[in-house]
Amino acid sequence: MGRWSNTPYEVESLKRITIADLKKLGYLQPNVRVSQNIFWTNQYGERTGAITVIIDTTETDGYITFDYTYNQSKKVNYKVRLITRPSNLGNSLLWFFVCPSTQKVCRKLHLNSGYFLHRTAFSDVYYEKQLQSKKWRGWEKTFGSYLDDKLYEELHKKHFKKYYNGKPTKKYLQLMKKLNARKAISFEDIERALLM
């Protein structure tokens, strides 16, 4: 007879609800009451989950009610407090969740064990990097920039600014440093590391 898996979950693979997504959808505004459905899809566009959210806000705080079925059998309905804090630019208010379990103020809630909570509320949830072996982390540190295609994607994004006020931006300089580090790595270095 098989045993239950004790493999920890990766934060990146969990379903989540973020303040940024709620704002992008137009659901999170002061003095509103909104009831909407949110859907998750996989890489092929197929629906993998759905949830009903009811958002009720005042000028500076409010609640979001989550209503959904977990594991096709357990009905779940609970409220999460919403609060605002002044922006560091001083021109607006930023919205945050208050985790019902840890009371931590956060901008993302992750689904695990049937509830959307702050990631620290779960004892078996880790970032992908935390689960990598020591050897793999060393490999990634040495050859990561060589294998990372996201560097070029970042560099060629539609609104990426390479210069501001005639000077290169910090982000541009960081990307160029990583891309130039690629040139120092030869195929022989990679081959040698694989044989070790």
Automatic annotation (TrEMBL):
Organism per entry: Chryseobacterium geocarposphaerae
Name the record gives this protein: Uncharacterized protein
